[in-house]
């Protein structure tokens, strides 16, 4: 029984300004989930140029009987993050001829009272429990749940 290929859903999150100050580094996490088969490439770019330094990618994990998920983490020094560069996570899934590009413009700031939030992955299967991404306050404005 061979199932039809499924493209990934991609979410790009970043550490909060408070965590950047606390750890003197910034982290962006690119999450890809719901894809099948397990043939996926994640590439990071800074101002449209490929980067490999500071990148740690996890092996794919089977989500259910068919689909997979994976993540790739980019860590950069705080001073570099504050430069206003555009960081891009580019996800390629050859079986569905899909390329997904997600961007973060670094250097933005929130006020101290804006919110303490976390991002969660919308369930890709029948699961209804949100998943917290990590111990860091990782978020992107479009993925904030209060």
TrEMBL record:
What are the record keywords, sorted?
Adaptive immunity, Disulfide bond, Glycoprotein, Immunity, Immunoglobulin, Immunoglobulin domain, Secreted
Q: Which InterPro entries match?
A: Ig-like_dom, Ig-like_dom_sf, Ig-like_fold, Ig/MHC_CS, Ig_C1-set, MHC/Immunoglobulin
Q: What is this protein called?
A: Ig-like domain-containing protein
**One CC-aspect GO term:** immunoglobulin complex
The reply to whether Transport figures as a keyword in the UniProt entry is: no
Taking every annotated instance into account, which residue ranges of this chain make up the domain Ig-like? 7-105
Q: Which SMART domains match?
A: IGc1
Read off the PROSITE patterns from this record.
IG_LIKE, IG_MHC
- Location relative to the cell: Secreted
The GO annotation for biological process reads: adaptive immune response
């Amino acid at each position: 029984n061979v199932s039809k290929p499924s493209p990934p859903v991609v979410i790009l999150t970043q550490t909060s300004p408070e965590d950047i100050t606390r750890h003197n580094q910034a982290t962006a996490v690119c999450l890809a989930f719901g894809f099948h088969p397990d043939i996926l490439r994640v590439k990071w770019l800074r101002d449209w140029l490929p980067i490999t330094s500071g990148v740690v990618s996890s092996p794919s994990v089977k989500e259910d009987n068919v689909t997979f998920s994976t993540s790739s983490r980019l860590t950069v020094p705080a001073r570099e993050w504050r430069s206003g560069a555009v960081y891009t996570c580019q996800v390629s899934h050859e079986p569905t001829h899909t390329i997904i590009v997600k961007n973060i413009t670094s250097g933005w700031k929130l006020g101290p009272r804006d919110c303490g939030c976390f991002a969660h992955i919308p369930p890709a299967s029948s699961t209804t429990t949100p998943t917290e991404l990590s111990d860091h306050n990782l978020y992107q404005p479009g993925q904030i749940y209060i």
